[in-house]
UniProtKB/TrEMBL annotation:
Keyword set, alphabetical order: Signal
The name this protein goes by in its record: Circumsporozoite protein
Signal peptide: 1-18
Top-level taxonomic group: Bacteria
Length: 76
């Protein structure tokens, strides 16, 4: 008796899930949209990282030039 009730509950739950799920075509469209969004985000992030690297390199060069100028002034 318990097995019959449990089996009927499992059957009802699986039918409920099957009825509420999206068709495969809609899932594919959603996956493609998510992939496009991920690619756009990755491209934006790459641009931000490259800009940060450029800024850090410029700051390092400026600091090196300032230190060289200070050392030259102190040597005189």
């Amino acid at each position: 008796m318990k097995k019959t009730v449990a089996l009927s509950l499992v059957l009802a739950a699986s039918l409920g899930l099957a009825a509420c799920s999206k068709p495969a075509a809609e899932n594919a469209v959603d996956a493609n949209a998510a992939a496009a969004d991920l690619n756009a985000t990755a491209d934006e992030t790459l641009g931000d990282v490259n800009a940060a690297i450029d800024n850090a390199a410029d700051a390092a060069l400026d600091n090196a030039a300032a230190a060289t100028a200070d050392n030259a002034a102190n040597a005189l």
